[in-house]
Every structure is written in structure tokens, then in C-alpha cells.
Amino acid sequence: MPDELKQAHCHKEDVLSLPGIDPKEICLLDPSAKEPLKPEDADTFKYFLFGGILGDDPPRDRTKELRKLGFVGRHLGPIQMSTDTAVNVTKRVVVDKVPLDEVPYIDSPEVYFSKHESVNLPYRYIAETKTITTKDGETKTIRKPLMPPGMLELIKKDNDRTLDF
Question: With 0-12 CB in 10 A as exposed, 13-18 as middle and 19+ as buried, what is 155?
């Protein structure tokens, strides 16, 4: 496990049954919430509940099951994002104090596996800016989606599967 995650605690139990957790300290990351997540929310909430962030395109509002439990909600913008991206964005906003609209994003990126093979990801990712040198020796700045290690390989493997009808 990466060092930065060694203090993380994973639970299988219902969030409301965990001892010592006040539901008022829980913020539900909810695409349908009226208010965006703000840096000052770090003063209000101790826990952030992620669920239903990434689903079908278009979304089916799976978060409604958690919304029924009465948690205060905040949204991360109008475009769906992967759960790892939602966690990363939340950390940047509440821990690093970066306003939500100042996090660099890339929407619906096309990821290339080869000259003739690519896939479009219909979600929002944090944009990672890289400077590369082309075959012609030209320096170029590109924006790529920030993804966890192994994600591109997983997407490629999934993309290589045959469709059985």
C-alpha cells in the first residue's frame, strides 16, 4: 500500500453503524447537491462519503439511496468523475484549500494506445500537464488525465475483449 494511504481505514459496515461517527460530520459527495464543495467545508465536515459518483453515462442517480439518509451534500461540478478522481479533487479542495473551479480538469479525454487505437472516456479527470519532446525534436506541452497506476492497462485490456452477441 502506498505510504500516503497507510493511515486510511476501510470498513464494510454501514457508515451509520460505525462507532463514534456523528452523521452531522459526514458530507455526502452528491452530483445533485445544491452547493459545491468549498475549502471551508473542511471546518464543517470530518468525513466525506463517496458513492454513486461514477456510474452509467448518462447517470442513473444511484446516490439517491445515500441521500435518503439525510447527509448534507456537496457536489464536485456538473460532470461525472471516477471515484479516485472525486477523492483526489476532494483532497485538493478541503486539505490543500484549492477552490473547486481552480482544480485543473480535462473532460472526456481520448486516450491513445497506438496510432490507430484509442478510447474516449466520457468523464472528468484532473488534468496533468506534461512537457514532451516529439520525434522531430519539438518541445510540446500536453494535458493528460491523471489516473491511478495500472488504469490505462486495465482500460486497454477491457477494450481488447470481444463482444459476444
Answer: middle
Model pLDDT for residues 28-38, shown as the tens digit of each residue: 999 889 999 99
C-alpha cell at 94: 478541503
Interatomic CA distance for residues 162 and 165, integer angstroms: 10
Distance CA(45)–CA(28), nearest Å, equals 10
Q: What angle do CA 152, 8, 79 make, to 5 degrees?
A: 45
Counting the structural domains of the chain, the total is 2
- Which pLDDT belongs to residue 56? 65
Q: Label residue 88 exposed, middle or buried (CB < 10 Å: 0-12, 13-18, 19+).
A: middle
Structural domain of 131: 105-160
Instruction: Specify the amino acid at residue 113.
Output: F
% residues pLDDT > 90 (the chain): 47
Please give the model's pTM, rounded to 2 decimal places.
0.83
* Residues 42 and 90 placed together within one structural domain of the fold: yes
Query: Does 136 reside within a domain?
Result: yes
Q: In this structure, what C-alpha cell is assigned to residue 35? A: 452547493
